[in-house]
Amino acid sequence: MAAIVAVLAVIVLLVANALNDPKAEDTVELFLAAYEAQDYETAAELTDGDPEVVAQALEANVDGLDGASLNASIDSVAEEGDQAEAGVVMTWSVPDIGEFEYTNDALRLNLDGDEWRIAWSERVVHPDLQGDERLGTTEEPPPRAPILDREGRELVSVQPVVEVGVIPEELDDPEAAVAEIAELTEADAETFQAAIDAAADPGNFVPAITLRQSEFDAVEQQLSAIPGTEFGERELPLAPNRDFARVLLGNVGPATEEQIEESDGEVDLDDVIGQGGLQAEFEEQLAGTPARAVVIRNTKDDVVETIEGTDSVDGEPLETTLDLEVQDAAEKALGDEDGKVGLVAIEPSTGDILAVANRPTDEGFNRALAGQYPPGSTFKVITTTALLDAGLDPEETVDCPPTIVAGGREFVNFEGSAAGAVPFSTDFAQSCNTAFVSLADRLEPDSLRETAETYFGFGSDLGYLPLEAFSGDVPRSRDETEQAAAMIGQARILASPLAMAGAAAAVQDGTWREPRLLADDETGEAEPLPADAAETLRLLMRSVVTTGTGTALASVLGEPIGKSGTAEYGSGDPPPTHAWFIAAREDVAVAVIVEDGTSGGEVAAPIVADFLTRLG
Question: For residue 448, what are the contacts with CB-CB under 8 A and spacing of at least 6?
Answer without folding.
Answer: 382, 383, 386, 474, 477, 486, 487, 493
